[in-house]
Amino acid sequence: MLGESVFLGLLIATFKNGNMRFLRYVNVRYFWMPIAAFMLEIASEIIVSQNLLGLRLFWNEYYLVVQIMIYTMLVIFCYYNMSRRIFAVILIGILLNFAVISFNDGKMPVDVEGALSEGYSLEVEQLSGGLIAGHDVLDEDTTRLKMLGDVIHIPPPYPFPKTISLGDIAISAGVFFFIFNSQKRRKTIVR
Fold first, then answer.
1. Cβ-based neighbours of 46, under 8 Å, separated by 6 or more
2. Which among 155, 143, 144, 147 has a CA at the least distance from the CA of 116?
3. pLDDT tens digit string along 123-177?
4. Cis peptide before 159 (omega within 30 of 0)
5. What is the 3-state secondary structure (H, E, C) of 118-145?
6. 89-115: string of b/e by CB count within 10 Å (b at 16+)?
7. Sorting pLDDT into bands at 50, 70 and 90, what band is 122?
8. Element (H, E) at 154
């Protein structure tokens, strides 16, 4: 969802602006933090899905620590960029996701019944087998903060069908509007 928000924000801003030069003037503090968090998340997914160096069990056992590191970087990044109000929306999304993850042993609960009804049988099989990093099957009896988990299904004909959370929506909306408003801000500065 985040990738689509970045792409759509850039596409619309570029269309309205005529070019992408406005990106040169986007000023965010500690820009490396979300990049480092993203790289750690990607590394986690590779380690878990491919059992890289035989680390899957170890990584799954300490995944909450990994999530704390990732979310700490994201919260610090948002805090230092709070002068732009849209970062409050992004921070709310981050905190919603972190809340559900921290209450569920470092894993984001996923509604598999809804996912199965939308045709995600392979993904549900991988999820049930522990092959998707940072995610777990939503259990009606033991999962806490269920409504904040990945319970919103975006089915086809959407080109990238998926299951997302309320936090994902807030983060994606915040990122989209940050990119879009960066283009508008540059226009006002030039005048």
1. 52
2. 155
3. 888 888 878 888 889 999 999 999 999 999 888 888 888 889 999 999 999 999 9
4. no
5. CCCHHHHHHHHCCCCCCEEECCCCCCCC
6. bbbbbbebbbebbbebebbbbbbbebb
7. confident
8. strand 152-154
